[in-house]
Structures are given as structure tokens and as C-alpha cells.
Amino acid sequence: MSYTSASKVYKKNQIETASPKQLVVLLYEGAIKFIRLAELSVEKEDFNKVNTNLIKAQDIVTELMVSLNHQEGQNAIASELQSLYSFILSQLIQANLDKDQKKMSETRHLMSELLEAWASI
């Protein structure tokens, strides 16, 4: 089994056995990784990779948005997160259109803060 294949199997097992909290952490980590890859791709002027990685980050933020729990008692937190995710998503879209490394960095920083908050729960 090659390293790439073993890595994919490990990641698949990690996702399939993760708790809901761990899944959210994995999503944040993935979004941060893809935003960082997009930033590095801007430096290399590889705009196809910028686009690909930012779309992956956008997909993750969209998944986080649709998975929010809007049940009673959770509604205020879910609404705040919905607003924050909407902002991050719009920033990622604009960063992709403009290939704006500053917007990428700002959204990565926001996602890192959210990751820290989730990891500490």
C-alpha cells in the first residue's frame, strides 16, 4: 500500500469514527489548510490552484452553515455562527474573484479563531 493510499484510508477512518465535535474541528482544519494553499498559490501565480483551493474552502464553510442546529436553546449561537459563516463565505468568494491574499489571510485567521474555540469546548 502506498503512502498516499494509506493516508486516504487513515483520513477516511478518522472521519467515520469522529464525534460531531471532532468533525467540526476537522472541517475547520480543512478550510484553514485550503485557504493557506490558496495563499501560497497566489505567490506562485498559479491561479487555477487558487481557485480550486478557495472553492474547497467555500464548500467546507457551506457545509458548516447547513449543519448548524437551529433548535430552541441553540438558536442564538446558531444565528451568530450563521452570520459569521456567511461573512467568511462572501470574503472567500471575493478573495477568489480578486485573488486577494489579504482577504484570504483574514478569513484564515477567523477560521483559526473558531478552531481554537471549538477545540477548547
TrEMBL record:
Keywords: Bacterial flagellum biogenesis, Cell projection, Chaperone, Cilium, Cytoplasm, Flagellum. This is Flagellar export chaperone FliS. It comes from the Bacteria. It is found in: Cytoplasm, Cytosol. Belongs to the FliS family. Its main location: cytoplasm. CDD domains: FliS (cd16098). Pfam families: FliS (PF02561). The gene is fliS. It comes from Alkalibacterium indicireducens. The keyword Cell membrane does not apply. InterPro entries: FliS, FliS_sf.
